[in-house]
Amino acid sequence: MYLFQNLSLSLQMIILYNSNMNKLRILLSIVLCYVLTPTSVSAQDNGLNPVYKVQLTDITYQKDETKKKVTVGKVLGVVADVVEGRVTDVNNEEYIPLARNRVMEGLTHVRRLQVVEGDEVTDAKYQVSAILTDIAATRKVKTYDRKDSNGREYTEAKTYYGAIATVALNFTNLQTGEVTTSTLSGRCSEYSLAKSADEAIRTALYELADNIYEYYNECYPIRANIIERGVEKRDKTKEVYIDVGSRFIGEDIHFNVYVVGQVAGRETRKQIGRIRVRETMGDDVSLCKVQKGGKEIKAAFDRGDAIVAISTD
Q1: Which of 11, 65, 111, 123 is the most buried (most CB within 10 A)?
Q2: Type and span of the H or E element at 113
Q3: Separation CA 36–CA 28 (nearest Å)
Q4: What is the model's pTM?
């Protein structure tokens, strides 16, 4: 009996030892996977997509004298009909507060820019000044030959309003002093439904906001690693996963896909496809549909190439 008790105790100790060893092996495997897996750090956390703080200063109105050499319809401070020469005064300075709001709105929607306000901001990367260089509306009257219900002919006149709003944005790098200027415009077509010059100008300023965030989203694109392939059919990849999610992007954002390499210590990129975000599945993961280059993307995966995606909108 004593022998069997010792044997039972020995077996329990062996089982406990093996159990602890298995737990240790599992723990070591997890640690090694975390340390050695290259995608354990997502693109939005590894410095590929830094967010820059920008401080917007006051917007000013500056008459662009060069417009006088072009056409009456482009002279600042007027609402003009280029064809018929009708001119009505417009006070451009009234639109400065609205223009500043639209510039602020445009910059706020840029994914990698954070707009901050206040004179005491000390950690901003850029200081942005805005100069409204052109704000004008046009009015065109067109006539149409009509017939009433009795067949009698008459002439109907319709008035169409259009507008343009142009702003020069000066980005000053507060660390280097370098200044980069970009000039962007918003327009309201003369064949829009605007019923007045004021409405046309406001419409142009709303379009200006859209053009600002589209332009700077292209200047500061999102870069993502393609971390896994999804659905595949035959020799083509239909879906992929990227390591950028809802923190930066939403659905329907487009990316160009590249195979990356190095030459003399410099990164090289070869475009092989295009993808569209179908669903953001977390802060740092999204499912994308392959729109172009499914065969090339699958071949790159099969070769073990490094594949990245860079946003285009």
Answers
A1: 111
A2: strand 113-116
A3: 12
A4: 0.72
Mean pLDDT, residues 3-26 taken together: 42
Please check whether residue 129 is in contact with residue 172, taking contact to mean a CB–CB distance below 8 angstroms.
Answer: yes
Q: What is the pLDDT of residue 210?
A: 94
The answer to whether the beta carbons of residues 189 and 163 sit under 8 Å apart is: no
Q: How far apart are the first and last CA of the chain?
A: 80
Instruction: From 54, 143, 49, select the one nearest 107 (Cα to Cα).
Output: 54
Instruction: Give CA torsion, residues 195, 201, 207, 213, to 10 deg.
Output: -160
Overall average pLDDT of the 8-25 stretch: 43
Is 170 within 8 Å of 179 (Cβ atoms)? yes
Nearest to 251 by CA among 287, 215, 213: 287
Give me the amino acid identity at 142. Answer: K
For residue 220, which amino acid is it?
A: Y
Which residues fall within 8 angstroms of residue 292, CB to CB, at 6 or more apart? 273, 274
Q: Name the residue among 300, 288, 294 with its Cα closest to residue 259.
A: 300
Distance between CA atoms of residues 58 and 167, nearest Å: 13
